[in-house]
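tool_log.txt
---
The assistant was asked to compare two proteins side by side. It first ran the structure predictor on the initial sequence, then on the second. Raw inputs and outputs are pasted verbatim so the downstream comparison step can read them without reformatting.
(1)
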Amino acid sequence: MAELALDPAIRLWVILPIVLMTFLVGIIRHYISLLLQSDNTADMDKISFSQAMMRSAMLRENGRFIPRKSFEMRRYFFNNSEDGYLKEKQESAPAPNMADPTMMTEMMKGNFVNVLPMLVIGGWINWTFSGFVTTKVPFPLTYRFKAMLQRGVELTSLDASWVSSASWYFLNVFGLRSVYTLILGQDNAADQTRAIAEQMSAPTAAASAGGMPPDQKKAFKAEWEALEIVNHKWSLQDVEETLLANSNVNSNAKERKDKDE
């Protein structure tokens, strides 16, 4: 098959406009996301719950490195039968309501910022640059890559290494991630693929968890039982004598070695 020769004007009127449009849309999406971002205030009850569970778990795992008296004082704070922290009554957080207007508003914002621009720009490129072959990858590809790299160009005789205008747009969507990170920082909203993936995985994660918050009563009870049965054994008992004994042994061994030499 004869080699194709592309018009040099395609570089100025097809390739660069698609790159520039994709880049500018990502920048605009980032700042629109910042404007539409809601102020999520931290829930003090959830923070207190997580911090208490973390402190109790650290005491169970690392309590052997503190003396018994210090360990028992901390365990008394958590497990005292009268006013211990883990024995206090804890109310479970309410289950999230999928019909909550706030949640529906956030989903609409995500669709507006992430999905709508991709549909609009993709339709504009298919309508404006339909049938254009933009570039060619510098290595041979198999026939299976034609569906990915030649969207909108239905030519069975065309080599799979050529890239159509529509496929060039999607390559830019994935390829500009590093540029967005360099300009806007690591946590940016310009990466459209990541934003869509997060939006699609959020309902799945909520469904897998049953849409229910952790039961604080059961969690505190389980942690209380786990901390109650811990048998404390100080790992640093007589560590000074052990250290001095090892030091003396090493010194004696060195002296004998010097005498032998």
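(2)
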Amino acid sequence: KSLILGAIMVAAAVVLNVKAQDPRDTRLPALFSSVKSAALSPFRAVGWSVRQVSRPFRRAAPAKVAKKPAPPKSTFSMLRSCICGCTKTQMDLSEASESSSSLLGDFNRVKSLAGDWTLVTATEQDKAMKMMGLGYLFRKATTLVQGLRLKATPKDFSIIAKASIIEILETYPYDGSKVSFRRRDQRGKHLGNIKVKKDQVELFCEWKEPNSGSLKQTYKLDGPDKLVIENELKLNVDAITGQKDPPTFTYLQIYKKK
């Protein structure tokens, strides 16, 4: 052990001396190899390897500690997990039941609107279309739409009307989620959703250019055979006057049951 330490010190002194004279000296590897061979030669003579000589100086590897197995769950913990799982399932089922009951309630309130209806009058509808920049031929075609069909199912509410180039086929779910349909003036698409209030349906539609704006329609009965649709039109620009952000324009459509 003393011999090896002495050899290492000599090797270090030689290396430092040569490095001080010339850091780029290429004799360093050869000198270090010679000192290493001289220091280990007595041990090689008796058959020792370099690994055996260096063994006393090596740090022993830490002993592996076996992991303790996880303690088994107590009966109380298992029972609590079971109860929590059952409670969550009951809550999910309860929410689903409430949602179904709500949809069914909406259906029961608006099913009286369902049926085929014939147009009686459409006060100021032509002016509303002019404000939207619609031409004469399209406005004339809308006068041919005399019939309207409303359908109510336990899940959604549908609006159907067809005549000439005009075709409306829209279905809106009761949950208020927005859906996209072709604009009624055939210029792109609109985004719409409905809300059920008492025994009437409120439809909200909005669209982008050309002539961007929004429309709120309220479908309600005025007696068993009379349907009233209140329209609230809000445009960003009035195509008639060129006015930006004009006041909301309101007009009515009256239908009778077929």
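---
observation on (2): Residues 75-110 form the longest helix (36 residues). The two ends are 115 Å apart (CA to CA).
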